[in-house]
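Section 4.2 – Deliverable D4.2 (structural model, holo form)

The reporting period included a commitment to supply a predicted holo structure for the target in complex with iron/sulfur cluster. Inputs used:
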Amino acid sequence: MCSQRRAITDRATAIAGGFRLSRRRWLQGCAGGVLLGMIGSVAAHAEGKLPKAAVSYQDHPNGSKRCSTCSHYIPAAKAGEAGRCEIVAGPVGPLGYCIVWADANPKGCT
Ligand code: SF4
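Output (structure tokens):
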């Protein structure tokens, strides 16, 4: 694993750690309204992936950075359908983006 990918993996791990802490706080003192807002997060946690909110997922690119150029992106079987992500829960579009983006073809990695 090249240093760039290791740094990105470390960053994703740190984000995941923050999510666990937030979830613990939620379990200690949530109210009914918060519970409804967290249903998506709990589902993502059950899937073993991060919820989109935890990685600031957006459905549009960040410049040239987009899911389709990310090393974590798993393309859909059919063209035009949303793909999946190794890290983020739920469907992700090829034009989406999040803060865990990692270049699928980084310079210096073979
Ligand atoms: S940009 Fe984020 S959501 Fe998209 S494939 Fe990469 S890690 Fe997954």
